[in-house]
Amino acid sequence: MTTFKTSLRNFLAHKGRMALSAIAVLLSVAFVCGTLVFTDTMNTTFDKLFAVTSSDVTVSPEKTDETDDSDGPPAGGRPATLPTSLVEKVAAAEGVKSAIGMVHSTSVTIVNEKNKNIGATGGGPTIAGNWSEVDLKTFDISSGQAPRGPTDVMVDADTAKKKKLKIGDKIRTITVDGDFTTTISGIMKFKVTNPGAAVVAFETKTAQRQLLGGDQVFTQIAVTAESGVSDIKAKAGIAAALGGSYDLKTAAESADEGRKDVASFLNVMKYAMLGFAGIALLVGIFLIVNTFSMLVAQRTREIGLMRAIGSSRKQVNRSVLFEAVLLGIVGSALGVAAGVGIAVGLMELMGSMGMELSTDDLTVKWTTPTVGVVLGIVVTVIAAYIPARRASRISPMAALRETGVPADGKSGWIRAAVGLLLTAGGALGLIAATQADKAGEGSMVLAVGVVLSLLGFIVIGPLLAGVVVRALSVVVLRAFGPVGRMAERNALRNPRRTGATGAALMIGLALVACLSVVGSSMVASATEELDKSVGADFIIQSTSGQPVVPAAAEAVRKTEGIAYVTEYRDVVAKVTAPDGAKAKMTLVATDPTYAKDLRKKMVAGRQADAYEKNSLSVGEEYAEKHGVKVGSKLTVAFNGGRTGQLTVRAISSDDSAIEQGAIILSTETLRSFVPAEKLPQIFMLFASAKDGQDKAAYEALKTSLEPYPQYKANNQADFKDQLKDQVGQMLNLVYGLLALAIIVAILGVVNTLALSVVERTREIGLMRAIGLSRRQLRRMIRLESVVIALFGALLGLGLGMGWGTAAQKLLALEGLGVLEIPWPTIITVFVGSAFVGLFAALVPAFRAGRMNVLNAIASD
């Protein structure tokens, strides 16, 4: 109890000094809890949606290679269907109360009267279907009426609000069979939160004819079981009536399937965000270690008195750890509360990107605060253990003489040796990664090298501080005369503290530098590859991943100034190699002009020969792995078509980032095995202008595609810009997440300076007494902060560029062979670190300048 009271008294006595450490714990725990609350809320939202949209039993076409659209859009552009005659057969099954035919298609684009795409954004689907009484489970008609004829359509309320649609407005629906115009007759509102889908509903016959190509088919049958009959029993009755050749799912099974569809997306988001939270926690550990190290040093005499009156080492150790527990509890409790706020903020952010989440579904499971509090306490106690152990080793006489913690030269040498060993191991790992023959194997070696080099720099930080800070001081501090030299000595006074403070900033900036190098190298490599390999003038594809409908493809072909157009299709097939190996693969079917659109390097045969009938080309790695040579035959079973033997006419080099390892055949060959109605849709188009008509053809092409706003024609300059934007957006997102770790690192610099000022109170008083002005004092502290920040930045940027360079060497195995160091970014971050140091020093410098000289000299 006495130990607890002592710890509580010390905690309250130093509450100002504990505040920044508590903020570090708060931010890290808040990000963890916010991530958990956010993903749990998303799960709740989808669970509710699946619950209201799932019928007691749903009858769908049996899943086969032909009907399974998990590999892309359905063959022919239309979903698999069931005959209308099946509805009566299902309705007559045992345990069934009613059966209603449903139409459901996502292979559509919806545009308004201004020809603007009004479909879902941010990854949500655009869903078109028929309106029936089944939909009353999911929607309420908030205004207007249900569609009653071929010119009527209903739109969901969320889409109507976002796109400013109202009853009486006309919308155009673009499908694989053409497009048709309807008038909004009603607005339907989801009974639960709509996560971001755009939904339109037509009269049943219209939906069948326009979306499915005939009025005698449905995509699903929604079944309502009789009262008192379980879904499982009703499913069994339907299976008996139909003979088991269909896909039957109960409401629970449909909901589970829906959860699986979104689980991969949610898990990637969840674990990525938790990874960044873990980085912030790691940085926070350095802040807490510094805090407790300095607090222990400042209480040396107090600890000596405790030991002199009988306190054991364990009691001293326990006293410091109790303070850490109190810090962890306070920081974690506040972090859990802040986490809910972060979750709400993330929901608003997702809303701006098109995924709507309602605070009505906000889900805070009991495990979330438990995880947050336990995590905060454990991390804080771990960080405080070394300072606590060091405090317990102070002898009473040494403490009473104010000699502080006795220097341990042996431990310093051990630390240096371990640090050098880890750094050397990390360097060897990075070098070994660059020598790997395969990217998969090298990535594991790279990961080991990154971890070891990071640990090495952290451990060896105090040793590096003495060298790097002196070098930086020559450039940065010496120009400020005596004040600069004093700032240098202060930064070098405790290399362990400076090393830990710099390491906190180093971690975040190392990741920034690494990703910047990788991103810049990817863009530079892809740009070089485009210049070297792509011969087409224009690339036409959807902005949302939709295939190119025949009408749009025809509009491109008729464009004035276009010399030729190449169709590009993805084809799913089962391929059997000469050695008997079988695999489900995605092949590429194109026109012979693709040989001009993409100049591929061949290691055997000629690229043009692969476009002969019943021929193809394969990638170099596939050929080596399965013993394939020019003249070898592959057995190819096409989805929705026949099986045949195709002859290998060429083997392409894998020294390319574009179409690396692709198996390519001609569209003519594909048509000979797959009937027209089952032919995969066009994924993209390549086009080239007639000689001297590039600009005119480009403008004409954009005009031709105006009726189809879901497609964009890019020339090579557009495509490069688009690539840069995509990589830039990804990097900006990562930088935003890393900002949390950098904020915590800045707090560490602030905390170190603040505690350092307190530690040097008497010294500051003496300097002021002999003539140091307040302005000079504040400048000294600011310069000390700047050099510490630059020290961390220099280590981080150097380490990150090393990681990025090694990663690029692995990417070179995938065809991305250009290394580009983004010097403007690196220099900006380095200079920005100096401003970070200035900012971090504002409060400590201001407080130091306000010290009373006499009180400072008299301080104990």
UniProtKB/TrEMBL annotation:
Residue ranges constituting the MacB-like periplasmic core domain according to the UniProt record: 19-240, 501-699
A cellular component annotation (GO) from this entry: plasma membrane
Keywords linked to the UniProt accession: Cell membrane, Membrane, Transmembrane, Transmembrane helix
Residues spanning the membrane: 271-297, 320-346, 366-388, 413-432, 444-477, 498-518, 733-758, 783-803, 823-846
Subcellular localization, as worded in the UniProt entry: Cell membrane
Coiled coil start-end: none
Any GO molecular function: transmembrane transporter activity
Bilayer topology term: Multi-pass membrane protein
Span list, region Disordered: 57-83
Main location: membrane
Domain ABC3 transporter permease C-terminal: 276-396, 737-852
PANTHER family linked: ABC TRANSPORTER PERMEASE YTRF, MEMBRANE COMPONENT OF TRANSPORTER-RELATED
Membership in a protein family: Belongs to the ABC-4 integral membrane protein family.
Entry protein name: FtsX-like permease family protein
UniProt lineage: Bacteria, Bacillati, Actinomycetota, Actinomycetes, Kitasatosporales
